[in-house]
UniProtKB/TrEMBL annotation, chain A:
Residues 466-475, 521-538 have a biased composition (Polar residues). Keywords: Metal-binding, Nucleus, Zinc, Zinc-finger. This is Zinc finger PHD-type domain-containing protein. Gene3D superfamilies: Zinc/RING finger domain, C3HC4 (zinc finger) (3.30.40.10). Residues 433-447, 917-951 have a biased composition (Basic and acidic residues). It holds the Pfam family DNMT1-RFD.
TrEMBL record, chain B:
The lineage of its organism: Eukaryota, Viridiplantae, Streptophyta, Embryophyta, Tracheophyta. It comes from Salix suchowensis. This is RRM domain-containing protein. PROSITE patterns: RRM. CDD domains: RRM_SF. Keywords: RNA-binding.
Length: 1223, 201
């Protein structure tokens, strides 16, 4: 490089253990300095804004230097990239190894430079190899290098590419620059992006992201990231017991700090499923105050007790704790001592600052705690005594005593050599005192917790979820890679493969990580695209044959993985190893939220609230359970709910599959749409499915004499080829379609995605073409087009797609009929017009009275509203469950006497919509199974009338009763009903009910509720609804239910609808229906695609016309609830005893069926559920139902037999489904 | 002549059928014909579904079927789609595999014209005897090895199922505990008291 005269001629010195700081002595990245390219223009060196100083040691550590620097440069011409900085004295200094703690700050720059270096030398390298190389180089980093790191230095990269020809050739860089990725592609593993497009939704929801990061932080707090022996980080093993400590497991992981470690070998650690330290294992813990060992066994004479705080984990003698908590007041101390000894929960002194006695506030840096690791002492950052210095402030003279989260108290003398106090503090039972730390020559360098810890914990959890529940491929590969892509895509799961080893348990070395990854990668690619297998379908056989004939002796020892045939079979040991590792991974991942955690946290929450009820201060409560912990609880809940989604939602889980709009609906849409189409237009269906819409439009338009062109896209080939292109809509470019857009009409039914994420994507893409019209079937939470672009809403029809408007292609139910589903919340049909065409289109709409449905609906609704308190859930009852509605109406009108609730009755009577035909239908259905329930129930209603209770009062009472927690206040307890309830799947309902009534009878099952209600008196309408529900589930069942049905579910359902403040407690049926509706509507939608629908194709032919259902449903829903509730409550008790068999929710099988769960889940869960019944309420019951489902009619409405692939040897496949039914 | 020509036409018809047929593997034993029909009906018209019976070996293992489509193009489409995307039928343990069919897969195939199969007993002294018995032994060995592998696989599946079950239960338990504390109002109540906003899906 050119060096001016001013620059020194001597060889550049090399600095090691360096770091850069600004004038305030805060660490700062040197990339803020101006960069010098080869041309070395030393122009604006002087006018920098930062005063940056370099601190480090030169001459092999002999001297330390402290110089101001003004520029930096990097040199890619050698084998390794070289970074140098220019000091103020115009002398270049090469940078060697940075100080550990500083590494984090310059991570991105280092990665960028290395990336450029690699790119320069390997211009043809693909992105993948670049990342591989970077990962290897930066293997010690917590986080794999990813695009995020480069994003920070886009400018730098850009300039470098311009200036250096060799870089300009590199494809990867060029692509990268073009791409200009956004920052914050959190957790998107680079490799993972190549994964199949099977991912249903790509949620980069802010909430979720926040969740993720917060979680990781929270979880970090739960588990110590530094070794309890030596206070150093690195490869540590976390104890899963209540002590919340971590240790260096092997001598080598503790090498750096001369830690004595636990003494395991690497192998042992790998094999270990779960680690419990000796203290936890033998239930003997040291009192954190005095250090003596004592028994912590609650059941047999505990001497030491754990602090109630969920994240604490320290044990104390009652005496020690009490003394510390009440230093001055002896009397109080004695009292407290007694209480603690009696088992009452207490918070140890750690949670209040020594100096000012207040709690920590994690959000304010001043009020963050520095907690001593050897004794129960904490300080606010601002209260820290001067002698205790943080590492980054410490220089050579003062020994750092405080690191980011550690703080040995000054009481504890720090031994210079090892940098910690004497390490004799840990005592294990039977192990005796630990030997004191050996003296080490080198100075200890603590590895501080990196600034942004994305703890693998969150990923582990994801790992579990994916692995367990994606269930598609039970191969090693799939577990790690593909599983994440499958059914459940919780945000950013792909990192699992990369970070899979940074599990809570172990942070494995990179090489091993890599091998696993490679294996899994290859395996997964094998699995996902079994093209390789297919191309040569005998390949596996051949290989096996070859291997076996060659080493026939070893054949038996091998365990070739059928799918992993790509892996070299001649390395069986590797496979076994990998297998084990993977199993361990799964196990670990599964336990990332351990049961103890959960229990501990929940305990803390309860204690905290109890304290607050006892009028303790908020401070005290916070000491027990910090706000973050509370947040954690919710996050866990959300996460676990996603994991368990297949089981909780059962049949509705099919919503993640493709849903095609039914042909009838398409025809209706065509009937409406053709008015807006002009000659010469192009109609584009960007997600055509079975490609029926186009054909129908074509036919219709030809009839009307308009000639139009069509284009249809979908990723999966459809049967019908009409103008079909097998393409991903996202890849279609604007030049492929007419430019102007005034001839473009686009639609129709894109995949929804979680929170309409996918739908939004499709729409955004479509908007690029500026079509004049967009006709969309999308969930209501989709972003409105008038907010995004100049579009106007011509009309919107909420009810159009209520009822069974969609079907699952390629699926049959038990009766071998096409499976349909209806939505809990029917997606509206929107027609959006570009603004310059709006007037015209609105005129057309006006002329033809689009959408006609809306008017009808509004009429009906108005009538309803008169009679009852409007329920917010109205819209949500669009649900197909509506089929019940019509029934309701007539029924109600016919049986006014049955409803106790006058209001309701009136309401019912008032309903104009009652179709006597419906009623007839109902009556006539009596004998028939599907609807017979209603009628038969109706008959039974007589019996129950008495029990019905008094409408409101009972309702209220029931609700109160139902709600244990807030008896008088059900209104207040706003049930998340619309959200949470899924009418149809009792599962959902039950789950909700569960929430409200932990003890609700288990039969929350929607169906059961129906049953119950039907029993009680109910009016037809309810029955209708119930029926509907049944329909979902299985009409045939209803009969059987009738007998036994009690209202348990009714109650549970009811409880959910607290806010359905219906005063009419009409038939339980009604309420059921409402509930059901409510359930359905509320349901579960939030997190799920709104397409979740219950199943049951069976009833199709028996159902009453759907059209009105939607409308009426809503109406009915309102009043049904109360009644349902009544019933539920009334009959709860007896109901509780009812075996779940009745419930036989169709859902039962459904969830099992659809889910990846192996069949054996069903029986097992059932067992579980049984025991849980009493405690948990509906949710378990749902699962339970599966097991106890009684012989429902064969048309049980579950479409899939439970998987039967991995049966126990004793379960022949054929028996499986039977087993379910008969259990 | 006649017989040969009919044999040839038969065979030609058969070959044409083979081209249109898809061989599906890894089917759950619970899959029925209508399931297959509907499932593959997404991609084209299914003319015939025939399961390949498993006369030997354990009963509860994946099955296979031959599905005859309307035209070779559809068969190709089916194979392509199935290999590209994991395709589940009647449950989710693992996806099915699809290949183009081959003649040998059909056990009811017509005799290949121009081919005659003869059987005869082989005498011990016949040089072919050795060869024949070797082949026989080898085939048996293959069968045994096959069986062994199969059992290994089943064992693994079993293990995996157990594991998944445990995980499920464990997760469920955790979930229920958390759900309880949330749903009975404790946690939200505490959140209110702390003045915190919680995101509860």
């Amino acid at each position: 490089m050119a060096s001016s005269d001013e620059e020194a001629d001597t060889l550049p010195e090399s600095v090691s253990t360096y770091h850069f700081a600004n004038d305030k002595d805060e660490p700062i990245s040197f990339s803020l300095l101006p960069i010098r390219w080869r041309e070395s223009k030393n122009l604006d060196d002087e006018k920098k804004n930062h005063m940056i100083f370099l601190k480090g040691s030169v001459d092999n550590g002999l001297r330390t230097i402290y110089k101001q620097v003004i520029a930096w440069k990097f040199d890619l011409s050698n084998k390794t990239p070289q970074i140098s900085v220019l000091t103020k004295e115009k002398c270049w200094m090469e940078l060697g190894k940075p100080r550990k703690s500083y590494e984090i700050i310059i991570r991105t720059v280092l990665i960028t430079v290395h990336c450029l270096h690699f790119a320069r030398w390997n211009p043809e390298a693909s992105g993948k190899s670049v990342w591989d190389y970077l990962s290897k180089t930066f293997s010690l980093y917590e986080h794999r290098p990813s695009q995020n790191d480069l994003v920070d230095h886009l400018d730098l990269i850009g300039e470098a590419v311009q200036k250096e020809n060799s870089l300009a050739k590199c494809k990867f860089l060029l692509n990268f620059l073009e791409e200009k990725p956004r920052k914050k592609m959190s957790d998107e593993d680079f490799q993972a992006t190549t994964m199949s497009a099977f991912i249903v939704d790509d949620v980069e929801d802010d909430n979720f992201e926040d969740l993720e990061e917060d979680e990781s932080n929270d979880e970090d707090e739960l588990f110590d990231s530094v070794c309890a022996f030596c206070d150093n980080g690195g490869n540590i093993l976390c104890c899963e017991g209540s002590c919340l400590r971590s240790f260096h497991a092997t001598a080598e992981s503790g090498e750096e700090s001369a830690c004595e470690s636990l003494g395991f070998t690497n192998r042992e650690v790998e094999v270990m499923q779960s680690f419990f330290c000796k203290n936890c294992k033998f239930k003997q813990h040291q009192c954190f105050a005095c250090g003596k060992l004592g028994s912590s066994d609650k059941f047999s004479g505990a001497e030491v007790f754990r602090c109630a705080n969920a994240t604490c984990g320290h044990f104390y003698h009652p005496h020690c704790a009490a003394t510390l908590l009440h230093r001055e007041d002896k009397v109080a101390a004695e009292e407290l001592q007694k209480k603690i000894a009696a088992g009452e929960s207490f918070t140890c002194p750690i949670h209040k600052c020594c100096i000012c006695k207040l709690v920590e506030d994690k959000k304010k840096s001043d009020l963050q705690f520095a907690v001593c690791r050897r004794c129960p002492t904490s300080y606010h950052k601002k209260c820290l005594p001067k002698e205790i210095v943080f590492e980054n402030e410490a220089d050579d003279d003062t020994i750092a005593r405080a690191w980011q989260n550690l703080l040995p108290n000054r009481k504890h003398n720090i031994i210079e050599g090892i940098g910690t106090p004497v390490r004799d503090h840990i005592r294990f039972p039977d192990v005796g005192e630990k030997k004191s730390a050996a003296e080490a020559q080198k100075r200890r360098q603590t590895s501080e917790r990196p600034a942004n810890v994305e703890e693998g914990l969150s990923k582990k959890r994801r790992l579990t979820s994916e692995e367990s529940y994606s269930g598609t491929f039970h191969t090693k590969a799939s577990k790690e890679m593909s599983s994440s892509a499958k059914i459940i895509k919780i945000t950013t799961s792909e990192k699992i493969s990369s970070e899979s080893n940074s599990l809570r348990k172990m942070r494995m070395n990179n090489p091993s990580r890599k091998t696993v990854r490679e294996n899994t990668k290859s395996g997964s690619s094998e699995v996902e695209r079994s093209t390789t297998a297919n191309e040569n379908k005998t390949s596996l056989g051949d290989k096996l044959y070859a291997s076996m004939t060659n080493d026939s002796g070893n054949a038996k020892l091998r365990k070739p993985d059928v799918f992993g045939s790509e892996l070299d079979i001649s390395l069986p040991s590797l496979d076994a190893d990998t297998e084990r590792r993977l199993l361990a991974l799964v196990k670990e991942a599964a336990s990332s939220i351990t049961l103890e955690d959960v229990e501990g946290t929940v305990e803390a929450v309860r204690t905290a609230i109890k304290k607050l009820e006892e009028k303790c201060s908020i401070e005290d409560a916070k000491a027990v359970c910090e706000p973050d912990v509370l947040n954690q609880v919710f996050k866990w809940k959300n996460k676990l709910r996603v994991y368990l989604a297949p089981f909780l939602y059962g049949m509705r889980y099919t919503s993640f599959g493709r849903h095609f709009t039914k042909v009838e609906k398409l025809m209706e849409i065509a009937d409406i749409l053709h008015w807006y189409v002009e000659n010469g237009d192009m109609i584009v269906d960007f997600c055509c499915g079975a490609n029926d819409f186009s054909c129908i439009m074509n036919k219709k338009l030809e009839e009307m004499g308009k000639r139009c062109s069509y284009k249809n896209y979908d990723v999966i080939q459809s049967k019908n080829d009409f103008n079909f292109e097998k393409r991903d809509w996202m890849t279609v470019c604007p030049d492929e379609l007419p430019k102007k857009g005034s001839q473009l009409i686009m639609g129709l039914n894109p995949p929804f995605g979680v929170k309409a994420a996918l739908a939004n994507k499709f729409i955004d893409r479509a908007l690029q073409f500026k079509p004049k019209l967009l006709i969309l079937i999308v969930p209501p939470e989709t972003e409105r087009l008038d907010k995004k672009k100049p579009y106007d809403l011509v009309w919107k029809d909420d009810r159009f797609l209520s009822g069974k408007s969609f079907y699952l292609p390629g699926s049959v139910n038990e009766n071998e009929k096409q499976m349909d589903q209806w939505n809990v919340t029917a997606p509206p049909l929107y027609l959006w017009s570009r603004q310059d065409w709006s007037a015209k289109h609105k005129a057309i709409a006006q002329k033809h009275g689009h959408p006609f449905r809306q008017q009808e609906i509004s009429n009906l609704e108005k009538k309803h509203r008169e009679t009852k308190t409007p329920a917010p859930v109205n819209d949500q009852y669009n649900n197909a469950g509506a089929s019940l509605l019509p029934n309701y109406i007539p029924l109600q009108s016919k049986r006014p006497e049955e409803s106790n609730c006058g209001i309701v009755n009136d309401g019912h009577k008032g309903r104009p919509g009652c179709n006597s035909s419906d009623r007839e239908g109902q009556d006539s259905h009596c004998p028939r199974k599907s609807h017979s329930d209603e009628t038969s129930r109706k008959k039974r209603q007589g019996e129950k009338t008495v029990e019905r209770g008094t409408g409101e009062k009972s309702l209220g009472g029931r609700q109160n009763g139902g709600k244990k927690t807030s008896p008088s206040d059900y209104k207040g307890m706003h049930r998340p009903s619309p959200r949470n309830i899924d009418g149809r799947s009792s599962l959902e309902g039950s789950s909700r009910s569960v929430e409200k009534q932990p003890q609700a009878p288990r039969n929350v099952d929607g169906r059961s509720s129906l049953e119950g209600s039907s029993r009680s008196v109910e009016k037809q309408p309810q029955a209708g609804i119930g029926r509907n529900c049944y329909q979902h589930l299985d009409p045939s069942l209803s009969d059987s239910y009738i007998q036994q049905h009690r209202t348990p579910y009714g109650r549970s359902l009811v409880s959910n609808h607290d806010d359905m403040n219906r005063r009419h407690s009409t038939n339980i049926h009604e309420s059921y229906s409402l509930d059901i509706h409510g359930l359905s509507s509320g349901g579960y939608m939030e997190a799920q695609s709104t397409r979740c629908v219950t199943t049951n194709g069976i009833e199709l032919d028996r159902q009453l016309p759907f059209h009105h259902y939607g409308q009426q449903g809503a109406d009915f829903a309102q009043w049904n609830y109360p009644s349902g509730r009544d019933l539920g409550l009334g009959h709860m008790e007896p109901a509780s005893a009812i075996p779940y068999g009745h419930l036989g929710l169709a859902a039962e099988p459904s969830y099992m069926m659809n889910v990846s769960a192996m069949q054996r889940y069903a029986p097992r869960l059932d067992e579980l559920n049984h025991t849980r019944m009493s405690n948990l309420g509906p949710e378990p019951s749902m699962l339970n139902r599966n097991g106890s489902y009684d012989p429902r009619a064969p048309g049980a409405g579950y479409q899939f037999d439970s998987m039967g692939f991995a049966p126990g040897p004793q379960h022949p496949y054929s028996h499986h489904s039977a087993g379910w039914l008969n259990e | 002549m006649d017989s040969t020509s009919t044999a040839e036409t038969d065979y030609a018809v058969f070959l044409e059928k083979v081209k249109r047929t898809v061989y599906i593997d890894n089917l759950s034993p619970q899959v029925t014909e209508s399931v297959v029909r509907t499932a593959l009906g997404q991609f084209g018209t299914v003319k015939n579904v025939q399961f390949i019976p498993n006369y030997t070996g354990p009963k509860n293992i994946p099955c296979c079927a031959l599905v005859e489509m309307e035209c070779p193009r559809q068969a190709k489409a089916v194979v392509l789609e199935i290999t590209q995307f994991p395709f589940m039928m009647s449950g989710m343990p693992r996806p099915v595999r699809a290949f183009r069919a081959e003649e040998e897969m059909f056990d009811d195939r017509p005799i290949k014209p121009g081919r005659r199969i003869q059987c005869r007993w082989v005498d011990r002294k016949d040089p072919d005897f050795e060869v024949a018995s070797k082949i026989k032994r080898l085939v048996r060995k293959h069968a045994a090895e096959d069986l062994f592998l199969l059992q290994q696989q089943l064992a693994q599946e079993e293990k995996l199922a157990k594991q998944q079950d445990e995980t499920l239960k464990a997760n469920y338990k955790k979930f229920s505990i958390i759900d309880n504390v949330v749903s009975d109002g404790t946690a939200p109540g505490l959140a209110k008291l702390y003045n915190m906003k919680v995101f509860d899906a």
